[in-house]
Amino acid sequence: MISELDRVVLTVDLPEYDLKSCDMGTVVLVHQEGLGYEVEFMTIAGETIAIVSLLSSQVRRIGDREIAQARVLASS
Question: What is the DSSP letter of 14?
Answer without folding.
Answer: B
